[in-house]
Specification:
With 294 residues, the chain is mostly beta strands. It folds into three domains: 96 residues, no CATH class; 121 residues, no CATH class; 46 residues, no CATH class.
Length: 294
C-alpha cells in the first residue's frame, strides 16, 4: 500500500487584534490525501499519514497550535484503490495545547489556579508567634481584629474510574501537609477534596478538585497558655490582684485570664510577652501531599 499527501491550498490565514488587545493569528491549509489501499483507511490512519494531529505546531509559527483536522469528500466520491480525501487543517495561536493526542479526558493536564483569600479574624499572636500584650503585659480581651490574606491553590484533574477509591476523598479532606508543599512549611496547608463522577461517550472517569488553603501561622489550634488559676504547692490556686502587684483590692480574683508558664505558674509581668507561650492542639491529621500526584 502506498499513499501520498499533496499540499493544495494555503489559507485563508488571518491575524487580528482581539478586544483584549491580544494579537491572534490563525492559519488554514488544505491537503490532498491519496492511497491505493484495498480498503478505506480510518480517519485516524489518514491523520497519521498526513503527519498533523491536534496539538501539533504550525510549520512556520511555533506559537500556533493545530486546533482542528477536518477530513472531507472535497475531491468528490472515490473508492479503493483510488481512494482520495481532502484534509483541512487549522492552527491558531490561542488554541489550547493538549497534554497528548487523545480523546480520553483523563489525559488532560492538571489545571492549577492561585488566589488570595481575605479573612477577618481576631489574633492573639503576631506573625513571629509572640503573644500580643498591651504596655502593661496583659493580653487583649478576645484578641485584636485584622484582615489576613490566606493563600488558596486549586488543582483540577480527571482520573479514570477503574479502581477509583471514593473513600479517600472524605478521608483525606481536612488533613495538613506533613512535609513542605507548594512552598508552605509542614502544617501550614490544609486540603479539601471534592470529586464528581462523569460519563462522556465511552469514557467513565472522576473529576477531582483539590483546594489547598495556606496559613503561615499553621492550622492546628494554638490557644494562649492562660487562665484564672495557676499551679501552687497544694494544687490550683486562684490568681488574685496581688499576684500582679495590684494594690487595689489585692485579694480580689483577676477579671481576665493571665498568661502562664509551661509549668502552670503565672508569667511575671516583667517577663511578658517574652515568656508567654501557646498550647498546640493536635486537631487535624497530616499526610504527605506529594502522594496525590498532582
Amino acid at each position: 500500500m502506498a499513499f501520498s499527501v499533496q499540499w493544495l491550498v494555503d489559507g485563508p490565514n488571518t491575524s487580528r487584534i482581539e478586544q483584549s488587545g491580544r494579537i491572534v493569528s490563525k492559519y488554514k491549509r488544505t491537503y490532498l490525501y491519496k492511497t491505493d489501499a484495498a480498503s478505506p483507511p480510518t480517519d485516524a490512519q489518514i491523520t497519521t499519514d498526513v503527519g498533523i494531529a491536534p496539538g501539533s505546531p504550525h510549520p512556520d509559527d511555533a506559537n500556533a497550535t493545530c486546533q482542528s483536522v477536518e477530513i472531507s469528500h472535497g475531491v468528490g466520491p472515490t473508492k479503493c484503490p483510488h481512494f482520495a480525501r481532502h484534509v483541512v487543517v487549522e492552527w491558531a495561536t490561542n488554541a489550547p495545547v493538549p497534554n497528548t493526542v487523545s480523546t480520553d479526558p483523563t489525559t488532560m493536564r492538571t489545571r492549577w489556579s492561585l488566589a488570595p483569600t481575605i479573612q477577618q479574624r481576631y489574633i492573639v499572636r503576631d506573625r513571629n508567634g509572640a503573644m500580643i500584650v498591651n504596655a502593661a503585659g496583659q493580653p487583649f480581651d478576645g484578641g485584636i481584629p485584622v484582615a489576613v490574606r490566606l493563600g488558596t491553590a486549586v488543582a483540577r484533574r480527571n482520573v479514570t474510574a477503574a479502581g477509583y477509591n471514593q473513600n479517600t476523598v472524605l478521608a483525606n479532606s481536612g488533613k495538613l501537609n506533613s512535609t513542605t508543599f507548594l512552598g508552605g512549611a509542614a502544617g501550614t496547608i490544609q486540603v479539601d477534596i471534592s470529586a464528581e463522577e462523569k460519563y462522556d461517550g465511552g469514557y467513565h472517569y472522576w473529576e477531582e478538585v483539590y483546594t489547598f488553603a495556606y496559613d503561615p501561622l499553621g492550622w492546628q489550634p494554638k490557644p494562649m497558655n492562660a487562665g484564672f488559676f495557676q499551679k501552687g504547692t497544694y494544687g490550683l490556686t486562684r490568681i488574685i490582684n496581688s499576684d500582679l502587684d495590684d494594690t487595689n483590692d489585692p485579694l480580689a480574683p483577676v477579671q481576665e485570664p493571665e498568661p502562664l508558664l509551661p509549668d502552670g505558674t503565672l508569667v511575671p509581668v516583667d517577663d511578658r510577652p517574652g515568656l508567654c507561650n501557646f498550647i498546640t492542639v493536635d486537631a487535624y491529621g497530616s499526610m504527605d501531599f506529594s502522594t496525590f500526584g498532582l
